[in-house]
Design goal:
Elements (H helix, E strand, L loop, with lengths): L2 H7 E2 L2 E2 L11 E2 H6 L4 H9 L3 E5 L2 E4 L6 H9 L7 E2 L1 H8 L16 E6 L10 E2 L2 E2 L6 E4 L2 E4 L1 H9 L4 H12 L6 H7 L9 H7 L10 H12 L5 E8 L2 E10 L4 E5 L8 H16 L3 E5 L1 H4 L6 H16 L6
Parallel strand pairs: 7-8, 7-9, 14-15
Antiparallel strand pairs: 1-2, 3-5, 4-5, 6-7, 10-11, 12-13, 13-14
Helix pairs in contact: 5-6, 6-7, 6-9, 7-10, 10-13
Amino acid sequence: MSVMDIDQMLSDGQLGPSFPLSPDVPFTRAAAAAAGLSRRMLDRLVSEGLVRRPIKGVYVATHLADSLELRAACLRLVVPEDCVVVDRHAGWLHGAQMILAPNEHLELRPLSLFRPSGHGRLRNDLAASGERNLRPDEIMEVQGLRVSTPLRTAWDLGRVRWTDEAISGLDAMFRLGVFTREEFLEGITRFGGMRWVTTLRAIGPLADGRAESPGESVLRLRCIECRVLVVPQVEVFRDGRLLARIDLADEDLRAGFEYDGAEWHSSPDQLRHDRERRTDLADDGWLISAFGCSEVFGRARACEAVIRAAAAEARRRRGFRVAG
């Protein structure tokens, strides 16, 4: 298809009546090919922002708003009837925001699909599959799909190798507010001896649904590892008016730590708002440290030295003893 063909498919900057598939429902690459859309054309539609890939193997027009119904419709195109959606894709289907891996829209992970024990595994490049000892009461139906329950999903998200991945997944599930902390913690014992249960035991008690992004979750873990105990989403008032809300803060020390993700902290207006807000906080005696992705994630963990130094400075300012 030619460059002109893209223009013919558009209507007011989005896919119009000339698009060979319904622009109001998700579709697969195979369906696109059957309708005459080549792989190159489909990839171009993605690169130009007219189509997006919410999960591996599925495409939707960008004008469609995200919803549970749309997520389920995407999964129904690629999930076999006898499989159970688990892990991050289960959390995504339950409505957990930002639970998929960072940049998953660019490099999509295989779907997390499992069959109950004894049924074998899927063998294709769309799914990270296998068998899992799911109890009948740990499987529910969501929009016509078999999905691990939110509580079982949380336990599974905590049983991973990397603590960063565990804390971000658990925080996202706790944010749903559909199970209690007591239920979650009491159930950890049943996974004794299973793979990565040590991560679940260590990170599970730290889960906090007030975190608003994976970056905030991991930054909180960095603070805890530096022995700086912080609370998420601390509101600061001046004369009865909300002055600011800090991502993570120790109110006794008046020390705050914030994660500046590119999506919400990169435009000129966003950067100006951040400067003004942090100036107001400094005027009220707060010491605020902000970090980007490269400082929080990865092996270097550049944020840790800053966290320790900021906490020590905050203690000095408040007249608290600083450890030598």
